[in-house]
Amino acid sequence: MKKPLLLTAAIAMASSAATAETLRIPHELGYGGSESIDPISPQRFYEAIQNVYSRLVRQGEDGRPSADLALEWSATPDAKEWTFKLRPGVTFHNGNAFTAEDVAFSLMRTQSETIDSPTKGVMEVIDHVEVVDELTAKVVLKQTHADFPLLVMDYRIKMLDAETCNGDLDALCESGIGTGPFQLVDYDPLGTTTLKRFGNYYGGTVGTENMELIAIADQDARVAALQAGQIDFIYALSAEQVPLFEGNPNFTVQSVPTGRWVGLVMNTQTEPFNDPRVRKAIRMSADRDALGKLVYGKDGYITSCDHPVWSGDQYRTEIDCARDIEGAKALLAEAGYAEGLTVELFVSDISEGAVKMAEVLQNQAKDAGIKIELVPAPSDGYWGDVWMKEAFFATGWSQRPADQILNEAYRSTAAWNETAWNSGDFDAKLDAARAELDFDKRKALYGELQKELWETGGSFIPVHLNTVRAFSSKLSGIEAVEDFSIRYEDVVKAGSGS
Amino acid sequence: MPSLILRRFGFAAFTIGFVSIVMFAAVEALPGNVCTSFLQRFAQGPRLERCIEQQGLDRSALARYGDWVAGAAQGDFGYSLKKRKPINELIWERFRNTALLGGLAALLAIPFAIFLGIAAGVRRDRPLDLSLSGAAMLAMTVPEFVTATALIYVFAISLQWFPAVTIVSPGAGFLQMLPNIVLPVIVLSAVLIAHIMRMMRASVIDVMASDYVQMARLKGVPERQIIWKHVVPNAMIPALNVIALTIAWLLAGVVVVEKVFNYPGLGTLMIQAIYDRDLPMVQAIALIFSVIYVGVNLLADLTALALDPRLRRKGH
């Protein structure tokens, strides 16, 4: 008796859930339900924030900043004062007008000690913001920064309504009122958060009526949910999950490059890695393309030459770093290791593919007479006990723009300078690039820094990782851009007929 | 008799105490501590010092163990750094969901299994027994994650009758949970039924061969009456222990099944806590599981005491 009842209930549920015009995106519950809708909160609910708020500038197709809430911007010759002209006629979801006051409020609150936002360190470069008129904001910096628009292009620097947030710079603002394509209807980070189309969106008509952000913490469960039609989209498929969707006409699989990387780090101050020839020899012994295929699958990577600037970054420089066993042997001989070299490499399962990468390099380096002994380290306590403590170890970084990653990982004074890179010349060039207002000259400077890392640096960064996503074939308008740049307002969902 | 019951309770309390020591020691033995595992790469300088101070990690392990046990005894498991909430708040809801899943599975499976066991035992070696026993062997040998995946493939992906994974808000009512728990309950019940049925069958066969059943038969008592009056009650006693053990097994099965169906219970919370290296949370859930395990076994002991006077004599 019980079963038919259950079945009808289930069928009723399933068919009512399959409404067209509702875009159902999984929410990965990265903070386990303590997510905040405040974009600068350490526990930001990114999937909601992305659609509810907008930025001053967004990433254009060439990786350079393009207009969003700000239509144009200019700097004084010393790149210390930046003037942003705002888009007229923009309103927040509550009907308030978007003005320069809101810009000042949204930028200054990133520096709050109480909020302790992850954006604080970067945004501290701002001294103050002047409201010139309703639609003009002037940002005055403490120091020169020629790429300041890149900083406000960060996915967390969204524009909030100063009035709704009571102008309080030191409190999280969880009203969820923004200028974005969708407005918040029901906020439930542990269950389903519901958004609906914002009629007055400045970017034109939004593609779908509703959007649901459905909390599913587990990737395998997300895969099953997409297969069963409970959601329309998933991020970050692993190489093993791709075949589940590839070749199935009900799904589209998309592989896009990102700035994430997993690498192996040599401490440039410790024997034998304090000799740049040894470091280069190890790097030259690697066949990056073969390594990428083995570790991340054939569509899973884009090769890099041991610098952290990814392929979608406007400052990326292409270098030729083909495998050169003879060259590596010659360098080793010069450095006094003609008989070969044995080193220990500490690895742990801390980032996707880190252990596999070490194993592949171990095999490839053998040909150059370099014997790499792998030392497995527990992933518990890895960042405290192994990382930056041993001489040769694995690491992993998320995507950052060129200026940020080069400063965070290679400036001699940086807290996370994992290669112990200590070059006054490198630091000076970093400063020079920040001060250079001419784009081509700036790009040339960043290019020199990347080449220097390939020639003498301590990082082995064979590839940048792609991210592979799958979505229902009913969806159209998802561009092959990295996750932070997907424009959900442009996505259209074909009716399912129910 | 009261002293016997007290002694059982004493043993149970001792076991739980011992388990808590082992769990605390295991976490202590891990490299790093709660703060380094939470902060990862940020575990340096003032941030680390602040965390260590807040968590009271500068005190001795013994003092911290004392605090933890005292807190846990009052139902306060401490604070989850990862989720930024007291652990209590997070656990209660999940506990309710797991209890719903496990309870429903046990409620459906146990009577059904006992009935099947009797049917198979009475019709020993006949086609019904052979097919039931064969099915039970299959259900016991196929791991539950395989059964679960197969059910998802057929009923969620191909037929789309049930959801593949559970998507509900916390605090969802029973009716909302219902379509989501059908498949998990089937998976859990299958294994429960298989184990209990086989034990019941063996037990029934034993009793059927006993002298008093022979006697009853010779006296001309109708077969139906023999089965329900003499065989079943006596066959139940050995089956009770197996039922207790399988309910304890449910705890492990629930973790696997919850994970496959993304069911918001204690099992998924535990797996997540392990991924997140949220050590206080892992400790709390492990302790809850061990309390349930010990509790179920205690209950079985006490029921057996009530049913079988022989066990109440001294020396047992």
Give the tags.
heterodimer, A: 498 residues, alpha+beta, four-stranded mixed sheet, four-stranded antiparallel sheet, 14 helices, globular, disordered N terminus, B: 316 residues, mainly alpha, two-stranded antiparallel sheet, 12 helices, 2 strands, 1% strand
Helices and strands in order, then pairings?
The complex is a heterodimer of chains A (498) and B (316).
Chain A lengths: L1 H16 L4 E6 L18 H7 L4 E3 L5 E3 L2 E6 L5 E6 L13 H9 L11 H4 L2 E8 L2 E6 L6 H5 L29 E5 L5 E6 L12 E6 L3 H9 L5 E2 L16 E7 L3 E6 L9 H9 L3 H9 L4 E3 L21 H10 L6 E7 L6 H13 L3 E7 L5 H4 L6 E6 L4 H9 L13 H12 L3 H18 L2 E2 L2 E10 L2 E2 L15 E2 L5
Parallel strand pairs in A: 1-10, 15-16
Antiparallel strand pairs in A: 2-3, 4-5, 5-7, 6-7, 8-9, 9-10, 11-19, 12-19, 13-17, 13-18, 14-19, 20-21
Helix pairs in contact in A: 7-9, 8-10, 12-13, 13-14
Chain B lengths: L1 H28 L4 H6 L5 H11 L5 H13 L5 E2 L4 E2 H36 L4 H15 L2 H15 L15 H35 L2 H9 L3 H39 L4 H10 L3 H29 L9
Antiparallel strand pairs in B: 1-2
Helix pairs in contact in B: 1-12, 5-6, 5-8, 5-10, 6-8, 7-8, 7-10, 8-10, 9-10, 10-11, 10-12, 11-12
